Amino acid sequence: MPNPQDGDLAPGLYLVSVPIGNARDITLRALDVLRDADVLAAEDTRSLRRLMQIHAVPMGTRRVLAYHDHNGPAMRPKLLSALAEGSSVAYASEAGTPLVADPGYALAREAIAAGHPVTAVPGASAALAALAVGGLPTDRFFFAGFLPVSKAQRRRAMEALRGVPGTLVIYESPRRVAAMLADAAAVLGADRPAALCRELTKRFETVRRGALGELAAALADAPVPKGEIVVLIGEGDSESVSEIDLEGMLDAALGHASVRDAAAEVAAATGLPRRRVYQMALRRTAKEHNDDDDGDV
User: Which stretch of DSSP H or E encloses residue 65?
Assistant: First the structure.
């Protein structure tokens, strides 16, 4: 139930953005909400307690409830019950903006479905901070979050991202970033511009920019980096599609279409000049006929 000694924060769910590193990167409004909310919930209770101590936000008699991926199904009914009783509930992720690669989505969705007000308290975001310093186009970008752990699944996920018309924003573990960059160079193209952003807003913040192949080679034999990592990958240039890729696409298209139609299909998919693709298709069919003739006795 609401505490009459708290401020006049209206009932509802408040999604509070917290710093991604530098403790001073928090808004005055976020501090007000943390001070006045009836119920506090956090992905990492220790991190939120420490942040509130740094900024002298009193806890009073409140405690911070843990809400994360592992206990979400059990904890959501309790938080929804508090909302139903007219309480104000503030939820904070471990770092950054809730719901962005964060377990808060299910809580917000169920609160909305139950008719409770849901309010965003904007602030820090690793994705936006990386875009600001990465040096890649920001007019269009796609947040891909964390890619799959296994190599095969990660490469399949990258194949699906291949044609995204904008900068890719990817979160990655320091232990896997070298393998991820190697896969990205192989699948997306070694010449794509990229940026490796590490420890954003913190003392040892570093941004490394270059082609995907260069970054992959630099990390291949280097020690495992420390800290949180955001990888930016620039939009692919249709002219950089490799000959091997084109041959594979043409062979697949020629399996069900005429030379002209297959060329048109691949040209549309890659953005390459139709005439160039058509000429390559002619060479592919001619090579296939020559190979068949060589095999005759």
Answer: strand 64-66
Cα distances from 168 to residues 23, 39, 117, 147, 179, in angstroms, run 27, 36, 32, 12, 17
pTM: 0.76
**Which stretches of 86-145 are DSSP H helices?**
104-113, 126-134
Write the pLDDT tens digit of every residue in 165-188: 999 999 999 999 999 999 999 999
Q: For residues 14 and 280, what is the distance between their CA atoms, to the nearest angstrom?
A: 58
Tokens representing residue 78 in the block: 């309790």
Res. 286 pLDDT band, cuts 50 70 90? confident
Other Cβ atoms less than 10 A from the Cβ of 137: the count is 14
CA distances to 36, 162, 257 from 32, rounded to whole Å, are 6, 43, 64
Listed residue (243, 228, 236, 237) closest to 277, CA to CA: 243
Cα dihedral 115→120→126→131 (10° resolution): 110
With b for 16 or more beta-carbon neighbours within 10 A and e for fewer, the 25-39 pattern comes to bbeeebbebbbbbbb
Phi, psi of 16 (to 5 degrees): -95, 120
DSSP string, 165-203: SSEEEEEE-TTTHHHHHHHHHHHH-TTSEEEEEESTTST
Parallel/antiparallel/unpaired status of strands 88-92 and 39-42 = parallel
The type of residue at 169 is V
Closest C-alpha among 292, 167, 297, 277 to residue 230: 167
Structure tokens at 284: 């592919």
Q: Are 83 and 114 in contact (CB under 8 A)?
A: yes
Query: Are the C-beta atoms of 262 and 288 separated by less than 8 Å?
Result: no
Element holding 64 (H helix, E strand): strand 64-66
Residue type, 14: Y
Tokens of 26: 């928090």
pLDDT at 6: 47
Coil, strand or helix: which one is 150?
coil
